[in-house]
Write a structure and sequence with these properties.
Elements (H helix, E strand, L loop, with lengths): L2 H12 L3 H20 L4 E3 L3 E8 L2 E4 L6 E4 L2 E8 L1 H8 L1
Antiparallel strand pairs: 1-2, 2-5, 3-4
Helix pairs in contact: 1-2
Amino acid sequence: MNKGDLVDAIAERSGATKKQADTILSAMTEAIIDSVSSGEKVTLVGFGSFEARDRKARDGRNPQTGKKLKIKATTVPAFSAGKDFKAKVKD
């Protein structure tokens, strides 16, 4: 499913127009991105949580040459599925 398919599904289930559904989906993703990038955790009960996680520096290898290299520490976005989401996927 891509964004267009998701917009269609939201519009169908909510009774909104596709344009309204697209606006709502875009606003939601922007709000999540803004919150997570500022260090906040976003929790949607039953669906999951979005948060920023710190990754430690580590050693790696260039897959083409096999040469060792250092991978810098960084902060990455992460998603953890909620209980209801996990149960639905499992079944």
